[in-house]
Amino acid sequence: MEGEKTVCGRDLYPENGICDKSGMYREIGARCLAFAAVLLLVLAPGLPAMAAQNPGQDVTINVYNWGEYIANGTDGSLDVNAEFTRRTGIKVNYTTFDSNESLYSKLVGGGADYDVIIPSDYMVSRLIDENMLAELDFSNIPNYQYVDDSFRNADYDPQGRYSVPYTWGVVGLFYNTDYIQEEITSWSSLWDDRYAGKILMFDNPRDSFAIAQFLLGQSVNTVEESDWQEAAALLKQQKPLVQAYVMDKIFDKMESEEAWIAPYYAGDAAILVDNSDNIRFVVPKEGTNYFVDAMCIPATSRHKAEAEAYINFLCDPEIAGANMDYVGYSTPETAAKAYMDPEMVESPVHYPDEEILASTQVFVNLPEDTAKLIDKLWAEAKMGGPGESAVLVAIILGFLALYIGILVYKRRKRKRELA
Amino acid sequence: MKKAGGRIYTFLIFLFLYAPILVLIVYSFNDTETGSRVVWGGFSLRWYRKLFEDRLIMEALRNTLVIAVTAAVASTVLGTVAAIGINGMKRLPRRIMMNITNFPMVNPEIVTGVSLMLLFVSAVRLFGGRSLGMASLIAAHITFCLPYVILSVLPKLRQMDPNLYEAAQDLGCPPIKAFFKVVLPEIMPGVMTGMIMAFTLSIDDFVISYFTSGTTQTLPIYIYSMTRRRISPEINALSTVLFAAVMVLLVIVNVRNLKDQSGQQKEEV
Q1: Do the Cβ atoms of A24 and B166 come within 8 Å?
Q2: Beta strand pairing call for A242-246 and A199-202
Q3: What is the ipTM of this complex?
Q4: CA A118 to CA A121: how far, in whole Å?
Q5: What chain B residue is nearest to A94 in terms of C-alpha separation?
Q6: CATH classification of the domain holding B156
Q7: In what order do the strands lie in the sheet with A60-66?
Q8: Is the distance from CB of A152 to CB of A136 less than 8 angstroms?
Q9: Number of domains making up chain B
């Protein structure tokens, strides 16, 4: 096709057909390529301009919350965001995340501009430490008065200047009474070898370590390396008894009776207790982790007043009540309970007794060294320590040896054939 | 005997491939209060009803479709034009071009995603924007769809008799008109296949979208965000709908290919 040199007056007489064919063809090809390049060039600068928000229009706030964490109008619930827009005229661009860490990476990575975010306790304290949150103007959030005193100024935000609690909950033990006859009262049941192979554990370091730490009587926010080592040793000891390290699979495994005992967040697992007679919930006597998801405004927000209006709206007892009815977590506002399903309000799963709450601890941000240490220890505990990685290395070396063996064999064979 | 063994083997392989999807579809019709994924509680369409009531899912779906359609059309236009350009090149530049084109396909998605994010973030900052969003998502999707379009159009161009185009011009047809009247109809099957490929790729992309989405949410991102709480069987219903949609598209592509082949065979005869 290509290769022949052509010179022809194609520009002057494009349709006279005297010109060499392949050259002509190539010509149009080159033009097309140029066109593609030009199109790209024309499009490219337009992109950021399109991405920028049009200031002339009505205000839209960007809200970033956990997935499935707000009443959205399905099953006859209140559509919280639509109601907010109806009342204030402020539009809501509502998006969701799966973990505190992905929220953090979105905030740090740039390219996203949020006005309201709802991270958990320890992430709130981390964001405060890193100056990434804006101080709230509480005169714009009059409904803050409904937030119970016990939820104000928690350890993760000691002065209560950056966050307003959205939901809270505790971690507890769920167990199947068909298989476990005794009354469970302690985290040590997760180390009971009568239930070997039927025990589930959290698949995240902070929650799993916390359980070991409650047993050891440590603070969950300790920065002593020896404390973490001790807790890790306990987790390693537990490993042979554990069926699996899982998160939301706990529901399936408990429901299908594949597992008998598992720790989980009360708000999520309450539905299990409500719907089956043989699953019970208990907060162990050693104390437990109490967690809060709190509403904050990133320091980069451009619509702070509107964001505060949104937070204020979510704190309205009537809205909070309707919202929590759907979400299933606990509300920090006593006033909101009047608007909720009374069964939920009285349930000890959702609202444990005062004395249980007195022995709870909340996570705060840990220094980076400690965080790294935890990650390392957790990987070791879960993988079964250096013993198993030695096996892994042996397997890899085995494969390598096999591969080399095959190569050598093939080369020899070829040589023999040649000879 | 041998044949039966082969059949059983094929059946097992297909079972292995499709059983998870089948289970997912079956449980999308499960009627339970708890949204169980393991205990069967009777047939119902409640999750489908809930799915279509859910404004957030619907918005994510709308975003996904807008992005997929725009990206498919744009990458098809760009890809076709580029394929024609590449086809007209000499051997060496064509080789180089093809390698450059293929590179994004073998590149791990996460690398593409992160590098696009870095590029877009700096571009947005440069032009005084605030946030990534729909535009950056579309640009990213066009980027990763492009090679697939080029790859499906190029073989059609190679098959085409290059003399046809010149013949049209010999008969007095201006180049642009000749392209639309002669070249385009010839390569149309490849163009369509490329477009449908681009569309399906765009619809279920997660990794690249995750990094370039800014404050816009697509369906796969929304589903992923549900994993902390219980994943509602709404997602089963949604996956069923998506699966059906992708299935239909694939069937269309395959039927097209089939028709195409039989058409060629006839011509050869």
Answers
A1: yes
A2: parallel
A3: 0.81
A4: 10
A5: B56
A6: 1.10.3720.10
A7: A91-97, A60-66, A116-117
A8: no
A9: 1
